[in-house]
């Protein structure tokens, strides 16, 4: 299987080094997530005691001076992602909290494993609980789903890609989670790869015209062309495309395209209607990539929980 390398547990569970996530973006996400849960969108006060008082249940039932320890625990087997982001949720409401990592992003975990331990004011831990779990559960669900695809095509040379079918506002986190699961990111947005699709061809008049116009406007950018037929592949290759998106082609058609392209410096991506059941068969055709929108738009969460204990 395509097993990720063993990772040392981070000394600082909030450290974003190596994630590719911007600290500013993560802190904005944490703020937005907490205000959604605690204030209904109003700005969250910086003073922790004031902030956690919005959790009416915890404010009423937990003494303000009570400290405790909580474990973020896996309730199902999977691959974890988003732990540094979840850790920052806790430190936003409890700046002095002590955090200990039990797992690193990208690790396979089993039901019952402790992923993160936090010690701090109990009110703050409980006020942060759902926001931290929502973030880590969503990211870990995507990482777990991606790992299943990566394992399915392991050894073929094909790479599993995500798409732009992401949750609005969560794209950096979701694409990071794909990487944690052993997949790769196709493009982050409309700005970093030119994707010529049927509507662009219709507007420009032909594949060749569309590619030429993109080359004129952005000469250094990678140009990908969507192809539904082998005839369109020939047209796209002749037009100078760098990358072909082979949409809803049969495995026989994919093999034909792989043979047609041969040693040309053109990458091939299979997409459309792919399932885990056929992933290996598709990868064995010789394509470079399988793109799977479901990684980000349909992955179920990984069930995680926060267990408060004494001490």
Automatic annotation (TrEMBL):
Protein species of origin: Modestobacter italicus (strain DSM 44449 / CECT 9708 / BC 501)
SUPFAM superfamilies xrefs: Nicotinate/Quinolinate PRTase C-terminal domain-like, Nicotinate/Quinolinate PRTase N-terminal domain-like
Signal peptide: none
Record function comment: Involved in the catabolism of quinolinic acid (QA).
Family statement drawn from the similarity comment of this UniProt entry: Belongs to the NadC/ModD family.
Protein name: Nicotinate-nucleotide pyrophosphorylase [carboxylating]
Stretches assigned to the Quinolinate phosphoribosyl transferase C-terminal domain: 142-307
Keywords of this entry: Glycosyltransferase, Pyridine nucleotide biosynthesis, Transferase
Pfam families per the UniProt record, alphabetical: QRPTase_C, QRPTase_N
Keyword Glycosyltransferase part of the UniProt annotation: yes
Pathway(s) annotated for this protein in UniProt: Cofactor biosynthesis; NAD(+) biosynthesis; nicotinate D-ribonucleotide from quinolinate: step 1/1
GO biological process: NAD+ biosynthetic process; quinolinate catabolic process
InterPro entries referenced in this protein's UniProt entry, alphabetically: Aldolase_TIM (IPR013785), NadC (IPR004393), NadC/ModD (IPR027277), Nicotinate_pribotase-like_C (IPR036068), Quinolinate_PRibosylTase_N_sf (IPR037128), Quinolinate_PRibosylTrfase_C (IPR002638), Quinolinate_PRibosylTrfase_N (IPR022412)
Assembly behavior: Hexamer formed by 3 homodimers.
PANTHER family in the record: NICOTINATE-NUCLEOTIDE PYROPHOSPHORYLASE [CARBOXYLATING]
EC top class, as a word: transferase
Keyword Chloroplast part of the UniProt annotation: no
Cellular component per GO, a single term: cytoplasm
Catalytic reactions of this protein: nicotinate beta-D-ribonucleotide + CO2 + diphosphate = quinolinate + 5-phospho-alpha-D-ribose 1-diphosphate + 2 H(+)
Gene Ontology molecular-function annotations: nicotinate-nucleotide diphosphorylase (carboxylating) activity
EC numbers: 2.4.2.19
Domain Quinolinate phosphoribosyl transferase N-terminal residue range list: 55-140
């Amino acid at each position: 299987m395509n097993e990720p390398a063993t990772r040392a547990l981070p000394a600082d569970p909030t450290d974003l080094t190596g994630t590719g996530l911007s600290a500013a973006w993560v802190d904005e996400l944490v703020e937005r997530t907490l205000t959604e849960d605690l204030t209904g969108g109003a700005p969250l006060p910086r003073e922790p005691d004031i902030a956690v008082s919005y959790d009416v249940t915890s404010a009423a039932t937990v003494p303000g001076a009570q400290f405790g320890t909580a474990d973020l625990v896996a309730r199902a087997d999977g691959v974890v992602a988003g732990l540094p982001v979840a850790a920052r949720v806790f430190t936003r409401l409890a700046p002095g909290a002590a955090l200990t990592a039990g797992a690193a992003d990208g690790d396979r975990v089993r039901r019952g494993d402790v992923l993160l331990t936090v010690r701090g004011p109990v009110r703050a831990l409980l006020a942060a609980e759902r926001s931290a779990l929502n973030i880590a559960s969503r990211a870990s669900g995507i990482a777990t789903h991606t790992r299943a695809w990566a394992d399915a095509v392991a050894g073929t040379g094909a790479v599993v890609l995500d798409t732009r079918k992401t949750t609005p506002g969560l794209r950096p986190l979701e694409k990071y989670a794909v990487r944690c699961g052993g997949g790769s990111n196709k493009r982050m947005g409309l700005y970093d790869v030119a994707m010529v699709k049927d509507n662009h061809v219709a507007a420009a008049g032909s594949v060749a015209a569309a590619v030429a116009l993109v080359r004129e406007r952005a000469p250094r950018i990678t140009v990908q062309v969507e192809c539904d037929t082998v005839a369109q592949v020939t047209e796209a290759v002749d037009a100078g495309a760098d990358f072909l998106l082979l949409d809803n082609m049969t495995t026989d058609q994919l093999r034909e395209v792989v043979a047609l392209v041969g040693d040309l410096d053109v990458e091939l991506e299979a997409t459309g209607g792919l399932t885990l059941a056929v992933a290996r068969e598709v990868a064995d055709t010789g394509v470079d990539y399988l793109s799977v929108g479901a990684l980000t738009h349909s992955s179920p969460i990984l069930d995680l929980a926060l267990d408060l204990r004494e001490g």
